[in-house]
Design goal:
Elements (H helix, E strand, L loop, with lengths): L9 E3 L10 E3 L5 E4 L20 E6 L10 E6 L11 E3 L19 E4 L15 E9 L4 E10 L6 E5 L3 E15 L2 E5 L3 E5 L5 E17 L23 E4 L2 E3 L5 E7 L2 E7 L6 E6 L4 E4 L20 E6 L6 E13 L16 E9 L13 E4 L9 H9 L5 E13 L4 E2 L1 H6 L25
Parallel strand pairs: 10-17
Antiparallel strand pairs: 1-16, 2-15, 3-19, 4-5, 5-19, 6-18, 7-24, 8-9, 8-26, 9-14, 11-12, 11-13, 11-14, 13-20, 15-20, 17-18, 21-22, 22-25, 23-24, 23-25
EC number: 1.13.11.5
Pfam family, one: HgmA_N
GO molecular function: homogentisate 1,2-dioxygenase activity; metal ion binding
Length: about 450
């Protein structure tokens, strides 16, 4: 990915790797990074006096007694209490949180939308968020929301953090920069970003307009799935996740911080940039990940495995083996199974599945599911290939076949996903999507032999 200049006035640490000088590799590592030499205390977290007149402060992503605890120690120009003042409620009507049930919108159904079109109006990360579905309850910290973002304007001296959730960002068009308290993350299509709960950041447009998808996770944070019998390799490897090196701003300029808290938005005015962390260490950090490094596994003799084989990240629930959210990636791969119907089979599922198309063509829906589009198949509603996909897969010559130029994903949750008013009434719904199964034929004739 192209590297861009740092924002004016921001100073970044050296370090990282040779391939990614602004990033440190590894998932769940205990990272450390400092912009100024000696800013990071050694052998202890909270010295009586920090170097350079910095303040020591801990950001905890889990309870202190969690096993293992997730926390990061920061050494900053001002403590965060100086980046917080009296708050006033503001309204962001298109960003919704669960529970959110709209009485005149029917969530029970199989739905698909065309890409939400870009707008000529200036839209930032906050004003450009469009919630499609919500699930669970933000107040009890279970479930999720799925959004489409439309961003064409950088945030100017404006900052944000969510006390409700971590955000999984999946770009589809354009390049975004997340200037965070712990450093800078730039993301483009074929990459994702993970922004922890409580982390302050500013979102800038590097190349726009930008469109993509966001999974807002209210529950336990995302983690790599257990590989089980697959073993130590393939799928998403920890070394391919990149955390940013430290970067800070020392700018005294009127600024705002917006906080999402229990589904409501509050704003406070401050006199400086809150991105003033000069050094940090810990295991609670933002990440980026290159989706082309995901190594899929699959059947090499017969049958089609469950789509869970393509899980990239999972957020656990209180029920073992049943996720609060799974993030599942369907990318380029070889199909070689013998005597096998290779696309996803027809099924009903306890999980609710929201899919998005990043680019290319999805094998179970060769028509209509276009890049930037979204589909929803709610819990226990039947779905599967359309007629063209079924007939093609049932009658094709089953030699090795490369599924190429394709990348789609799924936000899957154990909770039913409720449509927002935007999804039901404003987003470009494909009213004829349900008819994609109308032409499936009755083939049963009661006589033996494969038809």
């Amino acid at each position: 990915m192209q590297r861009y200049d740092l924002p004016e006035g921001m100073i970044q640490a050296s370090g990282g790797s040779d391939a990614h000088p602004g990033y440190m590799p590894g998932w769940g590592n205990d990272f450390e990074s400092e912009v100024l030499p000696g800013a990071l205390p050694q052998g202890m977290n909270s010295p009586q006096k920090c170097e350079y007149g910095l303040y020591g402060e801990q950001l905890s992503g889990t309870a202190f007694t969690a096993d293992p605890p997730e926390r990061t120690w920061t050494y900053r120009i001002r403590p965060s209490v100086k980046h917080s003042s009296r708050y006033e409620r503001i309204d962001l009507p298109y960003w919704c949180s669960a529970p959110h049930v709209v009485e005149d919108v029917t969530s029970l159904g199989q739905y698909r939308w065309d890409p939400v079109p870009h707008s000529d109006a200036p839209l930032t990360w906050l004003t450009g968020m469009r919630t499609m579905t919500t699930a669970g309850d933000v107040n009890t910290q279970v479930g999720m929301a799925a959004h489409v973002y439309l961003v064409n304007t950088s945030m100017q001296d404006e900052y944000f953090f969510s006390a409700d959730s971590e955000l999984l960002v999946v770009p589809q068009e354009g390049h975004l920069r997340f200037a965070t308290e712990l450093g800078i993350i730039d993301v483009a299509p074929k990459e994702i970003a993970i922004l922890p709960r409580g982390l302050v950041y500013r979102v800038e447009v590097l190349e726009g307009p930008c469109r993509g998808f966001v999974c807002e996770n209210y529950g336990q944070k995302f983690d790599l799935p257990g590989r089980g019998p697959i073993g130590a390799n393939c799928m998403a490897n920890p070394r391919d996740f990149k955390a940013p090196v430290a970067a800070y701003e020392d700018r005294e300029v009127p600024s705002t911080v917006t906080v999402k808290w229990c589904g409501q938005f509050h704003r406070t005015n401050i006199d400086q940039s809150p991105l003033d962390v000069v050094a940090w260490h810990g295991n609670y950090a933002p990440y980026k990940y290159d989706l082309t490094t995901y190594c899929p596994v699959g059947a090499i003799l017969f049958d089609h495995p469950d789509p869970s084989i393509f899980t990239l990240l999972t957020a656990p629930s209180g029920v073992p083996g049943t996720a609060n959210i799974d993030f599942v990636l369907f990318r380029e791969r070889w199909m070689v199974a013998e005597n096998t119907f290779r696309p996803p089979w027809y099924h009903k599922n306890i999980m609710s599945e929201l899919m998005g198309n990043i680019y290319g063509q999805y094998d179970a829906k060769p028509q209509g599911f276009v890049p930037g589009g979204v589909s929803l198949h709610n819990m226990m509603l039947p779905h599967g290939p359309d007629r063209d996909a079924f007939e093609g897969a049932s009658n094709s010559n089953l030699g090795p076949e490369k599924l190429d130029n394709t990348m789609s994903f799924m936000f899957e949750t154990r909770f039913p996903q409720h449509l927002t008013r935007f999804a039901g009434n404003e987003a470009p719904l494909q009213d004829d999507y349900i008819s994609c199964w109308d032409t499936l034929e009755k083939k049963f004739d009661g006589k033996p032999g494969v038809k």
